[in-house]
What does this fold into?
Amino acid sequence: MGQIQALRGTRDILADEIGYWQQIEAIASDRLAKAGYAEIRTPIFEQTELFERGIGEATDVVGKEMYTFSDRGDRSITLRPEGTAGVVRAYIQNKLQAAGGVQRLWYAGPMFRYERPQAGRQRQFHQIGVEVLGSDDPRADVETIAIAHDILQRLGLQNLHLDLNSVGDLEDRQRYRQALVDYLTPYRAELDPDSQDRLTRNPLRILDSKDRRTQEIAADAPKIFEHLGDRSRQHFDRVQQLLADLGIPYQLNHRLVRGLDYYTHTAFEIISDDLGAQATVCGGGRYDGLVAELGGPSTPAVGWAMGVERLILLLQQLGGAVETALDFYIVSRGARAEAVALQLACQLRQHGLSAELDLSGSAFGKQFKRADRSGAKACLILGDEEVAQDRVQLKWLATGEQEAIARADLFDKIEQLRGQLDR
It folds into this structure.
């Protein structure tokens, strides 16, 4: 019988990589908590209608990429392709607006899209995202961008830049849509097949095409900025001024429209120059109409999502694996010594120290080799002789220094040596 393999577009995250994930999650969680954001966890699958109404039936996500199926109750269910729609559904269903004020929420978890697997994007991929619901103030737009900027800086990422645009409000977009269709229609035969289809369904997405000829045609297309109303211009001007005040550099990208129908006003992407075609590590914007579209009260909102896999690719390019510092590796040999070693491992962990217990039962020499490879700062050694004398050998792996310590004095000794362990 053949081996069962992971499905194409999914992958296992193994121990030699997990440190990167934990580092990203820890930094994001810390920075978001300091900014007053509360974590929210929504279901991995939802009613299909949520994404059709929220994301837009004319988008590629809904039209081509969703994992949709009928459950045993003959209901149409979809694995979430993005996080915002589920958070908004939870906001409405749980009446979070009743608390008043602004709701600052963040989430992390897997998303699912049926597309060609590639570096940094699998069919099951992971995002960290934020949503700010209840404020139409441009400061909310800039606060979310500033937090993303802060997280990426604390991760040590380099060669990133912020692309910024405004897609206006619904009326602005309707005016622009018509202007874009009028411009592109004479070129229809020269557009790539996807763009020909989008011309009637979702013409703004043509601006995102990767086809070279379509890009050449789109380069001279009308700019949405030329079709913004006074309110939209004022909002966008304020966003730019606030970014400048914070010293966050940006560049205007009039072709940036994002891929989902719910965006209004500010749209932005943080892009890496080190990732080739799959360059966006964080993207988002304002979506003032989505809550009402999904049956809730009229509620302005803004948010973003980061692709965790792409962040990890960048961290790996910086060099050096993320290592989990281990305080003690415990080596033991003999039935009585092995029992005592287990007790010591548990006691060390209760004292807030990390300890790995060698369970192999092999000769001391082999256990010592594993201790050296473990990355631990110190090794505790127990044999029948140590147990008989009620002591333990403490060996510093970096220097090879070793001393015998009475078991009763071990934890007092460890407290004296905390400085060495913390280095």
Q: What stands out?
A: The CA atoms of residues 157 and 257 lie 25 Å apart. The chain is about 40% helix and 20% strand. The first helix runs from residue 15 to 34. The two ends are 50 Å apart (CA to CA).
